[in-house]
């Protein structure tokens, strides 16, 4: 069963070092034919990463698109292990 939404992340990739802070934009489109409330949370972040998501709930009518700002700060003590992290 398909989920009635489309999610995009801008930028879709970030190269970062411990201590770096950066901002992302999450865009959510309601592709259903009813009003939906989408609760947002971030999964898969490296340990000791600070995250702020505003707003954490997006209310959309059918066909509407909403967005949220994400601010991430990578920890330094201890730093995250090097590698590629996929955040959901």
Topology (SSEs and partners):
Blueprint: E1 5-10, E2 21-30, E3 36-39, E4 50-54, E5 57-60, E6 65-73
Antiparallel strand pairs: 1-2, 2-6, 3-5, 4-6
Characteristic terms for this protein:
4-stranded antiparallel sheet; two-stranded antiparallel ribbon; single chain; 0% helix; 88 residues
Describe, in plain words, how this protein is organized in 3D:
- The model has no long low-confidence stretch (mean pLDDT 91).
- It is elongated and about 45 Å long.
- The chain is built from no helices and six strands.
- It is mainly beta.
- It has strands at 5-10, 21-30, 36-39, 50-54, 57-60, 65-73.
- Helix content is 0%, strand content 43%.
- The strands form two sheets. Strands 1-2-6-4 form a four-stranded antiparallel β-sheet, with no helix packed on it. The chain has a two-stranded antiparallel ribbon with strand order 3-5.
Overall SS class: mainly beta
Which stretches of 5+ consecutive residues score pLDDT under 50?
none
Determine the number of helices (DSSP H or I, runs of at least 4 residues). 0
pLDDT average, as an integer?
Answer: 91
Summarize it.
This protein has no helices and six strands.
């Amino acid at each position: 069963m398909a989920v009635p939404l489309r999610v995009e992340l801008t930028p879709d990739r970030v190269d970062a070092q411990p201590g770096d802070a950066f901002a992302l934009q999450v865009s959510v489109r309601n592709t259903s034919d009813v009003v939906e409330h989408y609760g947002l949370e971030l999964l898969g972040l490296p340990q000791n990463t600070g995250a702020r998501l505003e707003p954490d709930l997006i209310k959309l009518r059918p066909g509407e698109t909403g967005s949220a700002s994400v601010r991430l700060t990578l920890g330094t003590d201890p730093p995250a292990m090097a590698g590629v992290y996929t955040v959901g």
